[in-house]
TrEMBL record:
Composition bias type Basic and acidic residues, residue spans: 8-23
PANTHER family: MUT7-C DOMAIN-CONTAINING PROTEIN, MUT7-C RNASE DOMAIN-CONTAINING PROTEIN
Residue segments, region Disordered: 1-25
The name this protein goes by in its record: Mut7-C RNAse domain-containing protein
Domain Mut7-C RNAse: 26-155
Pfam families for this protein: Mut7-C
Length: 165
């Protein structure tokens, strides 16, 4: 039976609900690379691949045999469905302000970079159309809220993961 995991919109915190703490940590097993990326898109600290349960962190796995209060066993489903399952089980509500606040490759928080410093590092059309850019301090990858980011955000809103803005 398919159970709706999240109401599409939550303006206020309900009892038992936690708002997204940017330091909330998830460790994911080797099967869950796509899910790790989606968690990072939402700004969560998501380490991948991980082999064992670490202190003060959730361990997300497809292994049905693991038993530990920190373990979240995800179903064999699409990464978005798995994401919804995690949020439902932990009661954590993603913060839309943390959308794309973390490097998708390195899992470290990105920082804003002055526009003049990225001239020549992005296509001219991207440079002229955007004013705010972020850079990963670890790998140097640049992030901006272009059409691709908007599409991802819309998908998260439509699936009920992020509240509509
Ligand atoms: Zn990076």
């Amino acid at each position: 039976m398919q159970v709706p995991l999240m109401s599409p919109k939550r303006e206020t915190e309900l009892p038992g609900e936690k708002t997204h703490d940017p330091d909330e940590g998830f460790d994911l097993d080797g099967m869950l690379g796509s899910l790790a990326k989606w968690l990072r898109i939402l700004g969560f600290d998501a380490r991948f691949p991980c082999k064992k349960v670490a202190q003060d962190r959730y361990f997300v796995t497809t292994n049905r045999k693991l038993k530990n209060p920190q373990v979240i066993k995800v179903r064999n489903a699409s990464p978005i469905e798995q994401l919804k399952q995690i949020l439902d089980q932990t009661g954590i509500v993603p913060n839309s302000n943390l959308f794309l606040s973390r490097c998708l490759s390195c899992n470290v928080p990105v920082r804003e970079i002055a526009k003049h410093r990225i001239k020549g590092r992005v296509p001219d059309s991207v440079f002229s159309r955007n004013s705010i850019f972020h850079e990963c301090p670890s790998c140097g990858k640049l992030y901006w809220e272009g059409t691709h980011a908007s599409r991802i955000k819309r998908r998260l809103e439509e699936s009920g993961v992020l509240a509509k803005t």
